[in-house]
Write a structure and sequence with these properties.
single chain, alpha/beta, Ribosomal Protein L25, Chain P, binds S-adenosyl-L-homocysteine
């Protein structure tokens, strides 16, 4: 079996830090021992958010913790070289779940749920704890070494002053006509881009004054072509294109 397949079989656990010897406690210990019914001798991977996978063997399963032995520390190659932050306007129902899951698979490192003018009132309470759990599950499944952070919900008006810290801002706007996403990404010096912000509207799209606030901040709106995509499709499509164009799909 290829290394990738072997690692796929091993369960991945995200921990704040790795102790010596490594242990799993709390929910992770319960999950491993009771749900997965792991046994001494089984292997697991510990990720502490530092870009390394620690391959460990279970030494002992105690009442309150699982004791591990560190076998090998290997670099996790699955993280993208660029850091992508998604500003995801809040969508209806479980669309937010879908986008957080897919954004995690596609390599986003930070997600802000955003309340825009056209987000409906009854959709405005976002369960970020739940979204963080979804991100953690997706990160495990796709073999990442870190879990993207789903931040607390922000208002659209907070965005313009947050954008200064990014090398590139991608703003798909349903009424943009002049510049395509392709044209936009072709014109930039990709080697200089280390951090990207992606700002996508909700089902209702962006209000004129929201678009103006972004263009006043120097952001260029781009079109995704002739068809209007659903908000969840637009989030996933733009992240895919950004990862592809910035050469993260090798
Ligand atoms: N209700 C709006 C569409 C919103 S689509 C209307 O009818 O005009 C949701 C979001 O997806 C948009 O705000 C935008 O960010 C993105 N989007 C969808 N299709 C797009 C396209 N063809 N070009 C640019 N952005 C698009």
């Amino acid at each position: 079996m290829a290394r990738h397949d072997v690692e796929e079989e091993m369960k991945r656990f995200f921990v704040d830090k790795v102790t010596d010897p490594p242990v799993l406690s709390g929910e992770q210990h319960k999950h491993l021992s009771l749900v997965l019914r792991a046994r001494p001798g089984d292997n697991v991977i510990l990720c502490a958010g530092d870009g390394y996978d620690r391959i460990c063997t279970i030494k002992d399963i105690r009442r309150n913790e699982t004791l591990l032995t560190l076998r090998e520390k290997v670099r996790n190659e699955s993280e993208p070289d660029i850091s992508v932050t998604l500003f995801m306007s809040v969508m209806k129902g479980d669309k937010n779940d879908l986008v957080v899951q897919k954004a995690t698979e596609l390599g986003a490192c930070e997600i802000y749920p955003v309340i825009t003018k056209f987000v409906q009132n009854h959709e405005r309470v976002v369960k970020t704890e739940r979204l963080n759990k979804i991100a953690a599950e997706a990160a495990k499944q796709c073999g990442r070494s870190m879990v993207p952070i789903v931040r607390d919900t922000i208002n659209f008006k907070d965005i313009p002053c947050m954008l200064g810290g990014f090398d590139l801002v991608v703003f798909p706007y349903e009424n943009a006509r002049e510049l395509s996403l392709k044209g936009f990404l072709t014109a930039i010096d990709k080697s200089a881009v280390k951090s990207v912000a992606v700002v996508v509207g909700s089902e209702g799209g962006f209000a004129d004054d929201e678009t103006l606030a972004l263009t006043n901040a120097g952001v260029v709106p781009v079109t995704l072509g002739k068809r209007i995509l659903r908000a969840e499709t637009a989030n996933i499509a733009v992240l895919s294109v950004v990862m592809y164009e910035l050469e993260q799909w090798r």
